[in-house]
Design a protein that fits this description.
The complex is a heterodimer.
Chain A: H1 6-10, H2 24-36, H3 43-74, H4 81-98, H5 100-104, H6 108-138, H7 145-167, E1 172-173, E2 183-186, E3 189-192, H8 193-215, H9 217-227, H10 229-234, H11 239-265, E4 267-268, H12 277-287, H13 292-312, H14 317-331
Chain B: E1 4-15, E2 18-29, E3 33-38, H1 44-51, E4 57-64, E5 67-68, H2 74-79, E6 82-85, H3 97-104, H4 112-121, H5 123-127, H6 138-149, E7 156-160, H7 168-182, E8 187-191, H8 195-201, E9 204-209, E10 212-218, H9 219-224, H10 226-233
Parallel strand pairs in B: 3-8, 3-9, 6-7, 7-8
Antiparallel strand pairs in B: 1-2, 1-4, 4-5, 9-10
The chains are: A mainly alpha, B alpha/beta.
Amino acid sequence: MSAAAKPATRTPAATLPGERLDWMPLALIPAIALLALPFIPSLPTWVTLTVAGLAMGMMIFMMAAGLTLVFGLMDVMNFAHGVFISVGAYAGTSVLLAMKASMQADSLWANLSAIVPAVLAAMALAGLLGWFFERVVIRPVYGDHLKQILVTMGGLIVVEQLIHVVWGPDIIPLPRPATITGSFIVGDAAIERYRLLAVLVGLAVFVAMSLILNRTRLGLLIRAGVENSEMVESLGYRIRRLFIGVFVAGSALAGLGGVMWALYQESVNAQIGMQMMVVLFIVLIIGGLGSIGGCFVGALLVGLLANYTGYLAPKLALGSNILLMVLVLLWRPRGLFPIGKA
Amino acid sequence: MAEALLSLAGVNTHIGQYHILQGVDFEVPRAGLTMLLGRNGAGKTTTLRTIMGLWKASAGAIRYQGAEITRRATPELAQMGIAYVPENMGIFAGLTVRENLLLAARSGPPDEKRLDWIFSLFPAMQKFWNGLAGNLSGGQKQMLAIARAIVEPRKLLLVDEPTKGLAPSIIANMIEAFRELKRTETSLLVVEQNFHFARALGDTVAVMESGRIVHTGRMADLAADEPLQTKLLGLSLETHQ
């Protein structure tokens, strides 16, 4: 047993207030689902909408997770995050379309032989673009939010135009792989296979991120850096290297979210990432800037609410998320899981 | 004065358009505790932050163990054995006491004997080992900040106002802890407004005014010279306890 762990076992743990899991924000997820139930005409429709909402939330989480860490750790307002989503979506689409035969085969393994390289390509290209962005666009403007907004918006426009140059201006249709097309029927509810896959992938990403953040020294450094990067440097760690690593990982995750979102939409266009930015910022603010747990809960809330209101009152879909954000901020002004920034 | 561990020569620091340090010269000996005193706004915190590389000196030289460190990055200075406890303590509120200390122990899990020694100085650290640092009291947070700085042996410890906002009983505990620290090989440079604390612990003293050092010498000599205290600090130590 390490020396560091020993005192925990030899001393009775004195408790401090507020150490217990903050379950109230977590309870919002089932609360919203149950609140919607009386308004939905049938239980199967409610089940379908709930799974769709969770799937959408998971994809939003993948796209937003990197952005919240980048903001929390580096204090960078990256309005260009959407292009990492777009580039990931296009890179993945290119690979998937190039492997059309594998995509259309009825074998799961054949489908996976196209999906896995597509996901890896999406993450690699988005990560590479993230690395380039950090070095060239963001590094000169650390600490200056106004300039960050200006240069990242500029970068976004440039990359969007480059997408037009490389992939053309037209929408590219992207059929889903054969084995994840169609639905399961559970009772009378139809659950799309792809949505279930999105839920599983999102959960896997969340669990992996939680394990890294809570069980590793790297995670400890990131959590400390989100609170007070100057103090982390004073303890002898080069925070700049951590910045780059987090920025690249966040961009790669956005790429993963991008290709998942493109498959969800069954098409890709140059604005696919930019169209998500408003929702992503809403999720970040609801969750608490820099908080992965908050981002996860916020994304699920937004996904669920968007699907319920999209069904009940389609014109209110985006407005409902803004209303949710306002209500959350009235309740917790720094978001559901605020990070104690120094 | 013994051979200097740290020396500042003509150090200037600008923060934005403000010229804060205007040629700071003083030395920190290889042993003992040096007090850095001065009125509010004299430049004491800026001096510590400039030494730690958090604000860069615009002119002058800082030497540590004989090597020029003026332009070195903060992490490198920490790796050279300089630890820093800022005025706001800089604890990671969302991390537990254990995680705060684990993070500060760069070379691996903290040594058990050293941890026991830290617990003897600050029993609250053991008591709240798995508690969130953000939920500690003000005094306990200060103890954690100092414990974190000494979780591994350091050569120089820079501490900015360790008694700020603390109750008298906690200050008495803190004085005992610093006495214990002085028995180690760590040299200390402490910025302080509490003159009782300064007199109880200081071996040498440097007094700042308007970004310059206006007095250096033995703390005991300053403590014994009321007119000099009044001249340098505006108050005598006797009237400010």
